[in-house]
Amino acid sequence: MTNPADLMSSLTGVLRQYWGYDSFRPLQAEAMRAILENRDSVVVLPTGGGKSICFQAPAVALPGLAVVVSPLISLMKDQVDALTECGIPAACVNSSMSNSERLQVANRIRSGELKLLYVAPERLCTDKMLDFLETSQVSFFAIDEAHCISAWGHDFRPEYRMLQQLRSRFPGIGVHAYTATATEHVRHDISEQLGLREPEWLIGSFDRPNLVYRVQRKSDVVKQIRSVIDAHPNESGIVYCISRREVDETAELLSRAGYKARPYHAGLSDADRIRHQDAFLNEDTHIIVATVAFGMGIDKSNVRYVIHTGAPKSLEHYQQETGRAGRDGLEAECWLLWTSANFITWRRMQEDLPDDARAQAYESLKGIERFCTGVVCRHKALVEHFNQLYEASNCKACDVCLDQLDLVADPLIVSQKILSCVVRVKESFGADYVAQVLVGSKDARILGNGHDQLSTYGLLKQEKKETVRDWIEQLSSQGFLVRVGEYNTLKVTDEGWKLLKGQASARLLKPSANKKSAADKSSKVDAASWEGVDQQLFEVLRGLRRQVAEGHGVPPFVIFADTTLRDLARRRPTTMTNFRQIHGVGDKKTADFGTLFTDAIREHCQQQKLSVDVMGSDAATGSSAPAKPQPPVVNSDVAVSLSAAKQLAFDLFREGKSIDHVATVTARSPSTISDYLSEFIAITQQCDPAPWVNESVFQRIREAARTVGIERMKPIFEALGETVTYDQIRVALACMRNLPPVG
Ligand code: ADP
Predict the structure, then answer these.
(1) pTM
(2) CA–CA dist 101, 85 (Å, integer)
(3) Which atom of ligand 1 is nearest to the CA of 561?
(4) Count of domains forming the chain
(5) Whose CA is nearest to atom 20 of ligand 1?
(6) Whose CB among 248, 435, 647, 672 lies 3.0–4.6 Å from 642's, allowing a Cys bridge?
(7) Domain membership flag for residue 404
(8) Same domain for 145 and 221?
């Protein structure tokens, strides 16, 4: 089957059979179609958008080998492990492998067994490798993290430039680029550098609806971090710090407070970095405290929170770093703890950049500063920053929309008090000083300057100094104040003067620390994904997943995603048929882990008196309706050796389901199912072909077989004038073989 239309329709089956997914995510079908039709493509989906399956599923469906370019060994390894666990022949070649391991991979390519090969660009672009691939059947090239080819991107890797030769060396073979990068400039650069031919542009929404964004001014940072961590016991999270020193200090403080946290930054030895990263991936530790050096090689799908303990240098970075949370589509929290000192630090670090780059860097800083001090929906602010429309009026997944921030009731008066104080101190002092004057501080410097005599002294004495500092930031980010000179002294802008005269309006936030705590789980995304889930069982299954992962030498999320564990703890399957219906469970995982997990579920549910096999609509509500009776598994001795799909098919035959029905449920073709049916009939020694073939058709086939024999189907088909189907003949013959020989 090589027609793209036929292949396309088989992809749903591939998705179900190998990954246990029922539908495509946005743009996945379009991205796969581009591959099947051999049109180059640039696919831009946010992290967690499901880019990998866009090339993995077509690689399975197409003849030949798909070559995937990936920048990091850790990324390749995780993907190959994940594919292998799903039953898809995949491998990587990299510098950490021995010659004999590489030879083994080459042999698998030559034999045509391998469907996906992961390779780093510098290795792919050696003459030896390219020559070898020219003699192999390459189905297409997929360039993962394609922004690495662009010097405009945030992670330029010169070795990616070597990929330019793919187009000339493999002129007829599709090249497909995948990235989460948001800027248009980078996307076009990717296409140009790779020499793509009128590529299909598939740009997804940058919104990540499952991420709950919260922005807070940094105060007692360890306390703030702990309140988030405490809301996620036993769940994985990343704490980002700006500097290595902060990483070490924070990790140390958390460890002293009894949390298992590991540091990660470029100053650690390679061995330590690998050790800490592995501990995080394998869930030996749940918390990693890191600089942004950590993340690119991380495919871990169940990171449940990302905390920034300082503002990153741009919204692009923020999007990228928070993107590492909730890749599995389940809710995850993103906390941004910031202070104005962060922006001062970044500006200082960027001072020596060439003029253009500096101007660009400062613009980016303003963007993130506005985000920190802003009062619009965080999802909207992010999406609109990337020039996309955000239509929802309430995302129900950020501090603003969840009403976790208070707006000051009369912002004009408060703003005027602040601005006039800036004017009274002759626009010669910084934010901290102005805030102190406004709250009526007795600081020696203020008294010495005689500023306790100003009309604005103590005008906001009922407020905390930090609150006034926040308001100053907010007024700056809204363009009413500006910082100038080496000491960042505050000046009132033209807009600020308008505000002083009451001709403009400002918005001020009142941080409401007590309104909603980090532990509060009131976001829209959260409610849905835990619905009906037995959390105790979830924990039992999580432990089991970890054991299995250890045995297989892979991280737990490679065995099952959290979505799958939740679905298991919600629907509580105890039969293979029901296990196979769980989200994220394909054929191979049913065969490999079905017994283990269903046993654990059965045992837990018996102890806790929980209903099992809640497979229908009850599942979502977690109703404790009695379990439905399940069809018995056919001849259990035989069943042990059956593949999961076949076993499921046998269960359904037992219920008398039609070939078409079973084909749909098992995502197999009808002809495969009729083969299974013949085998089922042979095993069960059944002589009656009902309900698959009716009596009169069966008698006609028997008649014809008496004349032309039962060895081949075609003569029977022709003898009956092509009025019966091959499937009917196959089933009838299977039953006839069970009939006692006629005397
Ligand atoms: P990206 O590479 O875009 O960051 P991934 O390919 O890692 O995203 O996918 C993120 C998660 O979503 C993975 O666990 C993946 O298996 C899952 N996923 C991808 N496509 C689907 C789908 N159609 N249905 C359900 N889950 C999916």
Answers:
(1) 0.69
(2) 19
(3) 14
(4) 4
(5) 50
(6) 647
(7) no
(8) no
Host domain of residue 309: 211-385
Tell whether ligand 1 has an atom less than 6 A from the beta carbon of residue 327. Answer: yes
Query: Distances from the Cα of 469 to the Cαs of 254, 459, 512, in angstroms?
Result: 28, 14, 15
Mean pLDDT score, 121-144: 95
Instruction: Give the CATH number of the domain where residue 564 resides.
Output: 1.10.150.80
Better-predicted residue by pLDDT, 513 or 377: 377
pLDDT tens per residue, range 621-659: 333 333 333 322 323 322 323 456 677 788 788 878 888
- Asked if residue 284 and residue 239 are part of one domain, the reply reads yes
Determine whether 129 is exposed, middle or buried from the number of CB atoms within 10 Å of its CB (0-12, 13-18, 19+).
middle
Q: Is there an atom of ligand 1 within 6 Å of 52 CB?
A: yes
Residues 377 and 436 in one domain: no
Centre of ligand 1 to C-alpha 576, Å, is 24
Whether the per-residue pLDDT at 619 is higher than 50: the answer is no
Task: Tell me if residue 572 falls in helix, strand or coil.
Answer: coil
Q: 20 C-alpha vs ligand 1 centroid, how far in Å?
A: 12
Q: Ligand 1: does its nearest atom lie under 6 Å from the Cβ of 228?
A: no
Check if 25 has its Cβ closer than 6 Å to any atom of ligand 1: yes
Domain contains 646: no
Q: How far is CA 617 from the centre of its chain?
A: 27
Ligand 1 in reach of 21 Cβ (< 6 A): yes
Residue 323: CB within 6 Å of ligand 1? Answer: no
Any atom of ligand 1 within 6 Å of the Cβ of 60: no
Tell which residue, 121, 77, 57, has the closest CA to residue 667.
Answer: 57
Look at residue 176 and give its three-state secondary structure.
strand
- Is position 278 within any domain? yes
Residues 461 and 363 in one domain: no
Q: Are 605 and 537 a contacting pair, CB within 8 Å?
A: yes
User: How far does residue 52's CA lie from ligand 1's centre (Å)?
Assistant: 7
